[in-house]
Design brief:
Largest interface: A-B, 43 and 41 residues
Strand content of chain A: 15-25%
Number of helices of chain A: 12
Distance between the termini of chain A: 22 Å
Number of helices of chain B: 7
Radius of gyration of chain A: 22 Å
Distance between the termini of chain B: 55 Å
Shape of chain A: globular
Number of strands of chain A: 23
Oligomer: heterodimer
């Protein structure tokens, strides 16, 4: 098991280097790690996995009902929905099968619903159904007044994006892949093999996968390709207090327009309610700040959909950037002459599609001359359950009886025990900061945001990591 | 579920209100009085207020010393303090709570429950302050614990959001931790604290006070690099800093109250109670900052002690009062406690807060347009950072079948 965050990189060449440890890069590394003969490097510019688009999105397990039929995205989202759903059940990644409602607020939107149902069917999603206003309000009693009807998409679900990424990466590392954090690629060169100049020295690999997310176009250009440009599209989101969770049962989506998918209201697996995202095309690939205008616009939209929501307290505000390319599809391209696969333009559906993308990319790599060798299924992993709908450690008498640390709560709002924090610090891919610890345990993620527990959690972190 | 263990009184929260109630109840022979505290040590917020201002005029104390005295008094009286135990939720039955601690889950039934779960400051997210999400962002509660309980390193240049008593306490903690306080920033036209305290900070410690100014954005990646401030005239400036402390803006920690379906007061966001601290849920009382974030610790302790009297009556078989008549306030008044009138339970007085300073204030108490009481307050009394008191002598004039009682300044 090798995870490094400092020092020189190994000098011997890897069979495959995957650049970018987001949910897609980690899924690819995990898929490749099923082939024990391969030497795999997963390299990441930041100090943790899933630090880019993967950590800040709407956390939805999509059916792909609204994808453009016939696209690669439509196929991979459809496949990925099944694959990740099954993987989550095996691994302990929380998924709540809430279903989604596309709510029509005017006659035009209402008229669009049958077409959307038909499109869903073309995407392999045959179980949608139209609801009249009465049934809609029976299902969502807190919905604002004036809704005319809805399209019900039963398969849409909410999922935990943090532990999904963590599960993939953990499994890859345990199966022998090397994860190198704090390793930013500065230059890339090809002369029969790949030579990556990074912030931690040079790394050599026979095959290269570019899963660099927002920076995939930069790396692609460094290797001589000019196929797409990533425009960061910012999505600001508000996370409402757990007291809001009883207000909403489904993922509430607007009827999509030419301007995009619009603002949704959705439960989170952590027991909160999400409102967002905005859609702002920017130039700066680091502009993950929220803005007063963005938050005001969201609250305005939220007030219409779920008036009682905006009376509740906001627990968190965040903004993520998705990798928009101007193309209505993923940009996954194999370059056999360079033993190189580009995985670009993976938008918000990438979480859902991640396992299907990984299988697809592995196939493409084989087509670039990579001998995958035999398959050995990796040891199953389980991730900490961060889901509110599943028994958490503090609720498990058996666990506490065996180890009282699981009954010793440190973060009161999120009911995180000292045992869980200890486990996270001793895990295969330990957090390197308090934010990483939060994504593994939910510590400091609750309504008090550290008023009660912040200092105690920091104490445990610093003692546990010797920092 | 395990079979419930029975106690006579279960107090949730070992802060000033809970400890004072427990001490009084145990001393009065209420039977088995148990206090649940989810933190590892009893004492509540004063535990990490390493400054003075607690105790009495004749016997001033620091927060930790005050917390210790309250704890000792409760234990001496015979109350059982259980730290590291969290009350999770209500179980079936009118005063039954599910708890968890290192010993595992437990169900505790009581003849009476006193909720004293306190208050917390609203963090940056709840205040919707936009910008990046860097490290170095605190509330006073986290800051004080970090410095006074754990000796952690704070940044070097800090901005304090707010200019009330707690903000000056935060500034003191920052200085004690070796950080320079760049400024206090408040949307108000003046500091909400005593003049002497504001002047001492400004003149003797050189801490600038920016009034009529709003923190509109946090800047920096990884670590905070500054805050953007907008003045009322529209000018914006960036104050470079690596730490910002959001102070004040307390809200009751009412999770258990809400989970229990207790009627909340719209002004306080804590449980609505009558003058004897009965909530809307039979057998459940509430006291302290949970009712009205935030008053001085001695106010919370006094309320706990007074609530104990009503708990004793309840244990002796006194009937649970009905919902009674709500007491509401009109702006600029912001809240009043107690905020229900039930027959035979007048408090010693009501506490109010105003949102804006009032000159020559007169309080009017009306029900359905009928004037019940009129009170002229002393000069200089009605400022936002100080509680106003209103007598309860008008309670016997309230029509129990009438509409809400309204307290206004006009």
């Amino acid at each position: 098991m090798t995870v490094t965050a400092a020092g020189a990189l190994p000098a011997t060449p890897y069979d495959v280097a995957v650049v970018g440890a987001g949910v897609v890069g980690c899924a690819i590394a995990r898929e490749l790690a099923r082939h024990p003969r391969l030497r795999i490097a997963l390299i990441e510019a930041q100090d943790d996995v899933g630090q880019g688009t993967s950590k800040a999105n709407t956390a939805i397990l999509h059916t792909g009902f609204d994808a453009t039929p016939g696209t690669l995205e439509a196929r991979l989202v459809h496949e990925g929905h099944t694959l990740l759903g099954a993987y989550a059940a095996r691994t302990g990644i929380p998924v709540e099968r809430t279903g989604a409602l596309l709510v029509a607020w005017d006659a035009e939107q209402l008229a669009a619903l049958p077409r959307l149902a038909e499109k869903a069917a073309r995407n392999g999603c045959h179980d949608t159904g139209l609801l009249g206003p009465e049934e809609l309000y029976a299902r969502e009693p807190h919905l604002g007044p004036g809704a005319l009807g809805a399209l019900h998409v039963p398969g849409e679900s909410v999922v935990c994006p943090w532990t999904t990424t963590l599960a993939y990466a953990t499994q890859a590392v345990r199966a022998g892949a090397d994860l190198h954090l704090n390793t930013a690629v500065r230059e890339a060169g090809w002369d029969g093999g790949h030579r990556l100049t990074t912030s931690r020295g040079t790394l050599y690999a026979r095959h290269l996968v570019n899963a660099a997310g927002l920076h995939a176009d930069t790396l692609d250009r460094a290797l001589g390709h000019d196929d797409f440009t990533v425009t960061p599209r910012r999505g600001q989101l508000l996370v409402y207090d757990k007291f809001a969770r009883s207000l909403v049962r489904h993922i509430l989506l607007p009827v999509p327009t030419a301007l995009g998918k619009g603002v949704l209201v959705a439960p989170t697996v952590y027991g909160n309610v999400l409102l967002g995202p905005t859609a702002e095309d920017l130039d700066d690939k680091h502009a993950t700040g929220s803005t007063a205008d963005g938050l005001a616009a969201l609250r305005e939209k939220g007030r219409r959909v779920l008036p009682a929501l905006v009376e509740e307290e906001v627990t968190a505000v965040y903004a993520g950037l998705r990798a928009a390319t101007g193309h209505e599809d993923y940009r996954i391209t194999a370059h056999p002459g360079q033993a190189y696969v580009t995985v670009g333009g993976i938008r918000s559906t990438g979480l859902t599609a991640s396992m299907a993308i990984a299988a697809h990319v592995t196939g493409l790599l084989a087509g670039t001359g990579l001998d995958l060798g035999p398959v050995r299924e990796p040891e199953p992993v389980t991730v900490p359950n961060l889901g509110e709908a599943f028994p958490r450690p503090y609720q498990r008498a058996d666990l506490i009886a065996a180890d009282p640390e699981y009954g010793t709560l440190v973060c009161h709002c999120e009911r995180v025990s000292r045992g869980e924090i200890r486990d996270a610090l001793a895990s295969t891919i330990p957090p390197r900061g308090l934010e990483g610890l939060r994504r593994r345990t939910r510590a400091r993620a609750g309504r008090c945001q550290g008023f009660y527990c912040g200092a105690a959690v920091r104490e445990l972190f610093e003692r546990g990591t010797g920092s | 579920m395990t079979a419930a263990r029975h106690v006579d009184v279960l107090v949730v929260g070992a802060g000033p209100a809970g400890l004072a109630a427990a001490a009084r109840l145990a001393a009065a022979g209420a039977g088995r009085v148990e206090v649940l505290e989810r933190e590892t040590a009893p004492g509540g917020v004063p535990r990490h207020c390493a400054h003075g201002g607690f105790g009495t005029w004749t016997r001033p104390l620091t927060g930790p010393r005050y917390a210790r005295l309250l704890t000792e008094a409760a234990e001496r009286a015979g109350a059982t303090l259980r730290t590291g135990v969290t009350a999770l939720d209500w179980a079936s039955g009118h005063a039954v709570l599910g708890t968890v601690g290192p010993g595992g889950p437990e169900t505790v039934a009581a003849r009476a429950v006193v909720l004293a779960t306190g208050a917390r400051e609203r963090p940056r997210a709840a205040r919707l302050v936009p910008g990046t999400r860097p490290a170095g962002v605190y509330t006073t509660g986290e800051l004080q614990q970090a410095v006074h309980l754990y000796g952690q390193h704070i940044g070097t240049r800090a901005v304090v959001a707010g200019a009330e008593d707690v903000s000056y306490a935060a500034a003191g903690t920052l200085r004690a931790a070796g950080a320079e306080v760049v400024a206090l920033v408040t949307e108000d036209p003046r500091a909400r604290t005593g003049r002497a305290r504001a002047q001492a900070a400004r003149l003797y410690r050189g801490i600038p006070l920016l009034t009529s100014a709003t923190i509109t954005e946090l800047l920096g990646r990884g670590r905070l690099s500054g805050v953007r401030v907008r003045h009322r005239d529209g000018r914006t400036t960036v104050l470079p800093c690596d730490t910002v402390v959001f102070t004040g803006d307390f809200v009751p920690d009412h999770e258990l109250a809400r989970r229990g379906g207790l009627v909340l007061d719209p002004g306080t966001r804590g449980p609505a109670t009558d003058g004897a601290w009965h909530t809307s849920r039979p057998g459940v009382f509430a006291a302290g900052s949970l009712l009205h974030a935030v008053e001085p610790a001695r106010t919370a302790a006094l309320e706990g002690a007074r609530a104990a009297r009503a708990v004793l009556d309840h244990l002796a078989g006194a009937p649970w009062p009905g919902p009674g008549v709500p007491v509401l306030v009109s702006a600029p008044l912001r809240r009043i406690t107690p905020n229900r009138v039930t027959p035979g339970t007048p408090p010693e007085h009501h506490l109010l807060r105003t949102g804006a300073p009032l000159s020559r204030p007169v309080l009017y108490v009306r029900q359905d347009g009928r004037l019940l009481h009129r009170a002229r307050l002393g000069p200089g009394a009605a400022v936002p950072h100080r509680a106003l008191t209103l007598t309860a002598r008008w309670h016997d004039r309230v029509d129990p079948g009438g509409g809400p009682v309204r307290v206004s300044t006009g």
